[in-house]
Specification:
- By secondary structure, this protein is mainly α.
- α2 packs antiparallel against α7.
- The longest helix is centred in the middle third of the chain and has 19 residues.
- The N and C termini lie far apart (46 Å).
Length: 218
């Protein structure tokens, strides 16, 4: 995709949604980190349902460690892979206490050293909590990067590196939110809704999905 088209691509997404935000609910940086860890292979809506009551009473690493693995499992048992996620959340909470005075670190190296925290999770936390211009490549961003021609790549890291080079200011801070939301609600995996896409003419995906036809009323 040409530079001018990339700029216009994000300009339109920004115009449609000037202040995009993560759909994961949290009350502080720590609960954001926990929510992102829990969201792996799960929907944001499902994580939110499970964590509302949890975060109402547990909002620090110390409280999470006191709750314990079994107590955490009782809250998140509706989330996929909850056993391993509970183990990781307790372990990362203890690591925050031991190595970071109970605070969430802002560096990629420190975040990725925490149990259960990979590059995508670190990118989300760095962006949302610390305002870093990072690109968290989930399934939506990976699909959009390749489908639209915006940032084609065979791996999430390749797509991230393409986005790093391609996305211009002033769109870098919110770029991954716009792409996630666009992939979740418009450029869907099975049937992209091209007929209502604000960037359809800039996208390389062919053939474009036509608008559904209404059944005739007798």
């Amino acid at each position: 995709m040409k530079k001018a088209d990339v700029f216009e691509f994000f300009r339109r997404l920004a115009e449609a949604n000037p202040s995009p935000e993560t759909e994961l609910e949290s009350v502080n940086d720590y609960t954001l980190l926990v929510a992102v860890v829990l969201s792996a292979q799960a929907t944001d809506a499902g994580v939110n349902r499970a964590t509302r009551a949890l975060f109402a009473e547990v909002d620090t690493p110390e409280k999470m460690v006191a709750l314990g693995e079994d107590g955490l499992k009782a809250h998140i048992k509706t989330i996929g892979l909850f056993n391993s996620k509970a183990k990781n959340v307790i372990a990362l909470s203890q690591a925050l206490i031991d190595k970071h005075d109970g605070q969430v670190p802002g560096s990629r190296e420190a975040l990725e050293a925490l149990p259960g925290v990979g590059r995508k999770t670190a990118n989300v936390v760095m962006n949302v909590a610390f305002g870093a211009e990072t690109f968290a490549v989930d399934t939506h961003l990976f699909r959009l990067g390749n489908r639209t021609g915006l940032a084609p790549g065979k791996t999430p890291l390749a797509v991230e590196m393409k986005l790093e080079r391609a996305v211009p200011q002033p769109f870098r801070l919110h770029a991954h939110h716009w792409l996630i939301l666009h992939g979740r609600y418009v450029c869907k995996a099975r049937t992209p809704e091209c007929w209502r896409c604000v960037v359809a003419d800039l996208c390389r995906y062919k053939p474009k999905t036509p608008a559904p036809t209404r059944a005739r009323v007798a």
